[in-house]
Amino acid sequence: MPYIISSINVNGVRAATGKTGKGMLEWLAVTEADIICLQETRATDEQTRAALAPALDAGWYLTHAEPGAKGRAGVGILSRREPRAVRIGLGRWQDGTWRPSAEFAGPGRYVEAEFDELTVASVYVHTGEADTPMQDEKYRFLDEIGAHMRAQTSDFVICGDWNVAHTELDIKNWKGNLKNSGFLPQERARIDGMLAAGYVDVVRNLHPGVAGPYSWWSYRGRAYDNDAGWRIDYHLARGEVAGRAKQAVVERAATYAERWSDHAPVTVQYR
């Protein structure tokens, strides 16, 4: 079955939907996506549903993992079909039972929705900070994500804000970020491991050898106008679906003023 899947860090769902003119709700009204992975909703279930009420009234289904700390994280999946199963937080199947992760069963960084022939996950990886406990937690999270991905046996697409630029092509100012979280060798090696386990970086596969396409730009300075960005929002796919990706676009707003997040939707068509 063909799918169009999009991923977007909304940078606060209430702010994104509250912007009038060309905000998130207007984008949702015209997108052709069948499934949308959301990151950084920064809102409770109730607040998220209220913010997305026009879209839900129009027929979208929402799966949401609310943040554990107020105003931080939060991930979700919007879909035009109701998923047959939902799992919130990391964990593993063991003897036919879903066993939640001891550390990452929550809060608000991972959710997956199972459809008839495909499982789609939305992930928000920690920002981290080099040489701090925050960075150590980021490494542990990436390790658990990697283990969960390797355990998959059927078609699986995991989308989200990974807060890691994998290669020099994925960050404009890579030389200035060699010692910063987001471009550390240990982080990039973990993405290497995911690809070595059989996953395809779908956007890079469809845009080989080019800088970007970037999906995040700082609000500071003229980063957006100069396209001085990072490519940190990935679709990683395994199984038959990975070979069906035929087009990938970053839906970059025409102007800085028209942005409704500091990220742009990354949208992939799967045949």
Automatic annotation (TrEMBL):
Domain of life: Bacteria
Keywords, alphabetical: Hydrolase, Magnesium, Metal-binding
Cofactor entry: Mg(2+)
InterPro entries: AP_endonuc_1 (IPR004808), Endo/exonu/phosph_ase_sf (IPR036691), Endo/exonuclease/phosphatase (IPR005135), ExoIII-like (IPR037493)
Recorded coiled-coil stretches: none
Keyword tRNA-binding found: no
One Pfam family from the record: Exo_endo_phos
Domain Endonuclease/exonuclease/phosphatase: 7-263
Recorded family membership: Belongs to the DNA repair enzymes AP/ExoA family.
NCBIfam families referenced in this protein's UniProt entry, alphabetically: exoDNase_III, xth
Full protein name: Exodeoxyribonuclease III
Origin species: Nocardia vinacea
